[in-house]
Write a structure and sequence with these properties.
This is Helix-turn-helix domain-containing protein. By secondary structure, this protein is an alpha+beta fold. Helix content is 43%, strand content 18%. It has twelve helices and ten strands. Strands 1, 2, 3, 4, 5, 6, 7, 8, 9 and 10 form a ten-stranded mixed beta sheet that branches.
Length: 334
């Protein structure tokens, strides 16, 4: 079991979601539950599937509505009703057959008033099968990557059934009386197939990508580097050198894979972290500027206004000015 004692937050038994003690995140306000994937010893797997009805029996709607920031992937499969969810300042809704996708590090909350049933799939980021150098481009072109999924997606009817069958099979296989290593291997391959199905479902609703496997590989490495280094590196040239490619190659890969320039992607990620810190911490604007790599608060203010459309103080007042608005009535689909 995790050694967090009385501070542990128990949503489920296996694995637990626990408050995280992380120097990167610990300054977030108490209103945001810092949650990490910490399975108890008797379970011990890096992936867990939980029935929402079982989760509700173990907690309260008020607890589920708490703002949370998780360090693992969380996918919600809606089987019945309509699910509402806030993810990084945006409301999303999904009806039966749809999936909601919350990435590690995103601030989100459940809507306790939503009447829905379904499944929660949780897994550590490193649980996705590692790719060897030779096969990386092909795997990425196939789309077996959780980070590539949109926040909401709705597979076709036949694919909905296939995805739910896969999910239920994984839940059963996690309890097989075999070694942890064998179950991990089985679940990892099943997860890869499920992510591929979801990626294909997402692609059907999007324009056909002209990105090559090499571009997709480069963009995936760039995205990973941004997550790791954005508080210190704000120039695209630094990422190009880190990845061993030219700035032109990096920009071409980003444009082909994501439809935006590498600079726009990096700026959006920095701005998102600034919004999170402004909304969910009591740190000063100057402290936030320093935390995310700006040498002068004035430079941060200019950057934030350009990216978000208002100065940091106004954004914070707007976020603190009242309750989170109600979720929309129309379903947002992908």
């Amino acid at each position: 079991m995790s050694g967090l004692g009385a501070r542990r937050t128990r949503y489920i038994q296996a694995p637990e979601w626990s408050k995280v003690d992380n120097p990167v995140q610990r300054s977030l306000s108490p209103a945001v539950e810092q949650v990490r994937y910490a399975p108890p010893g008797e379970y011990g797997l890096d992936l867990e599937i939980v029935d929402l009805d079982e989760l509700r029996r173990r907690t309260t709607p008020a607890h589920l509505e708490t703002l949370q920031r998780t360090d693992f992937h969380l996918l919600l499969a809606v089987v019945r009703g309509r699910c509402g969810h806030w993810i990084d300042f945006r409301p999303h809704t999904a009806e039966a057959g749809a999936w909601l996708v919350i990435q590690p590090g995103q601030v989100h909350r459940f809507d306790g008033d939503s009447d829905w049933s379904g499944w929660l799939l949780m897994f550590r980021p490193e649980f996705v099968a590692p790719r060897d150098r030779a096969g990386m481009a092909d795997d990425l072109e196939a789309g077996a990557c959780a980070e590539a999924l949109p926040a909401v997606l709705t597979p076709a009817i036949d694919e909905q059934r296939s995805c739910l069958r896969a999910l239920r099979q994984m839940a059963r296989d996690a309890r097989l009386p075999h070694s942890r290593a064998l179950r991990h291997s089985l679940l990892r391959h099943q997860l890869q197939v499920l992510l591929l199905r979801l990626e294909l479902a997402a692609r059907r609703r999007q324009p056909v990508s002209l990105a090559s496997g090499v571009d997709l590989q480069r963009f995936a490495r760039f995205r990973e580097a941004v997550e790791k280094h954005f508080p210190r590196h704000h120039r695209i040239g630094e990422y190009a050198r880190l990845l061993g490619i030219s700035e032109r190659s990096l920009s071409r890969a980003s444009q082909a894979a994501a439809g935006i320039t590498a600079k726009a992607y990096l700026s959006a990620r920095i701005a998102l972290e600034a919004r999170r810190l402004l909304a969910h911490t009591d740190e000063t604007v100057a402290a936030i500027a320093e935390r995310i790599g700006f040498d002068e608060p004035s430079n941060f203010v200019k950057f934030f206004k350009r990216e978000v459309g208002q100065v940091p103080g106004a954004f914070r007042r707007e976020q603190r000015g009242g309750r989170t608005p109600a979720l929309p009535q129309r379903t947002e689909r992908t």
